[in-house]
Amino acid sequence: MHDMASMDLTSLWLGILAKIQQEIPPQIYDNWFETALIPYTYENDTLTLDTTGLFICKFISKKYTGLLENAASQVTGKATTVRLIYSSEGEEEAIVSTAAEKTTNELLQETQAIDEPKLQPEEAEPPVDPPLTPTLEIVKPELLVQDALPLTPPPKADVKPLTTADELNSNYTFETFIVGNSNRIAHAAALSIAEAPAQKYNPFFIYGGSGLGKTHLMQAIGHRIRENFPNMVLRCITSEDFANELIQSIQDKSSESFRQRYRNVDVLLVDDIQFLENKEHTQEEFFHTFNKLYQDHKQMVFTSDRPPQDIKKMEDRLRSRFQGGMVTSIDPPDLETRTAILRSRAEAEHIEFQKEAIDYIASNVSENIHELEGAFVRVTLLASQAHTPITLELTQKALQDLVKTNNKKKYITIDEITRTVCQFYKVKYEDLMSKKKTKSIVIPRQIAMYLCRELTENTFPHIGTAFSGRDHTTVMHACNKVSDEIKSNESFRKMIEQLKTQITGVDK
Question: With respect to CATH, is domain 414-504 assigned 1.10.1750.10?
Answer without folding.
Answer: yes
